[in-house]
Amino acid sequence: MFAIRNIYVAQQHMLCTRTGRGLLRKCIDHRFYDCYSTRTEKCKNSGLLEIPEGKMEYCSMNNGMRLISEYKKESFITTIGCFLPAGAVFEKPEERGSALFLEHVLFQATTQKNQQQIETELQEIGGTLTAKAMRDMFVFYGTVPSYNARKLADILLDVALNGVTCFNDVESAKYRILQELSKVESNTEHVVMDYFSNIAYQDTVLSKSVFPESCIIENFEKECLISFRKRVFKPHFMTMISSGAISLTELQTVVDEYITESSQETQSSTDDCKLKSFSDLKQLRFSGADLRLRDDNKKLGYVAIGFEGPTYSQCTDRCAFQVAKEIIGSWDMTYSGANHNAPYLAHSAFNTGLCHLYKSFILDYACNSIWGCYFVCDKLELDTMVSMLLREWRKLYTTVTNLEVERAINKCKFQELKKLNDPVDRFFDIVNCLHLRKCYIPMEERLAKYEAITTNMMRDAASKYICNQSPAIVGLGRIENLTDYCIILRGTWSLYY
Predict the structure, then answer these.
(1) Cα gap 494→409, rounded to integer Å
(2) What domains are there in the chain, each with its CATH number?
(3) pLDDT at 253 over 70
(4) What are phi and psi for residue 178, nearest 5 degrees?
(5) In the chain, fewer beta carbons within 10 Å around the N or the C end?
């Protein structure tokens, strides 16, 4: 069960109230708030900021579903959604592709409504619905004007708890998925990053891509999706989150209408236990590997290089690597600023034509993360780009300056605060907190964690995760001039200058 720190509520007890059809268990205890053994100091600049965080409330229904509400009375837009462990890693071999198909058929029909009725209701309330399958979780959510928030919650719960799968829906989804797959294949960055996780975590559950092979899509059967949906779409796996002008009490009332005697059973099967245990897994094995797909029909080389990064359980190191990501930065040929780009790599790229673009990244999963850089170069510049990138990475644990760290910290704080302005971004912010951190951290404390990062902490973290570590590498396109893996590995050595 997730824990959330709530600075607004002082009581710490178990409160049980009886509403509607069933018993509503409202969990308010010390685990709900205190997820770390020590409390972070307040952000020193927080007195200058009016951080528009709403009151965060939490409860657990008697069918096992968890409800989390960030109540903002004056919000004009409300986002409501659910996330649950139904990503590609939870597919059985015979269910391969089910998460992707579920993304496309989730809102097609329920036991009480067909697709046309669902679309009509959605048009009447002026809302949008979206579903997204990922490697390690499944998310579906909707956005609506706040005065129709309860109606949106009703639609989402009906789809989640009473959804049905029809043969015609699966067949029509095949054509849409194959068309989507052809678009994905034309997006080289998406292809490289998809392969990147595959080889970095080869022979583990994270090696499963959301997109299976085309032959699997073409031969997919309705029974596979029904089996997958029945196994994972259960209330006690779901966490419903709202951000906007709907209170926890209103959300409870809507959910309570869908609680039946059968849904109150929360006994786990063997498969359920496997799903629950995933959030408690230790870090999966990271492989230092090299995958190169040369394609002379392409004009450029597309490359990603990355290392195993810290997870949110290593809180200080994770914050340090978020800062390191901003130190390396990103750049492409459309950027303004010319010679005044702050990251040295961006400055060099503008002046020398070193690359067409580059971007630092962090890929976060429930129990793992990858930190690295993706770049696009002319074939004759690949070796130079790799050398420059290795040089910048070595600086992180040798000669990084206080000015660089301070600039990157301010950028990280800006990125965090920006999430508060959009209800969808805010929804995903809460989802990521619960999925990756296993708790919610108030914005003020997040800013304080970044401000606590020092240059020495940055060097220590980079030394631990980059120095003398084996990277994962994926290259696609005109990559005949890409630096050999052994040379790249040697470039991470602490004695290599």
Answers:
(1) 25
(2) 3-278 (3.30.830.10), 290-490 (3.30.830.10)
(3) yes
(4) -65, -35
(5) C
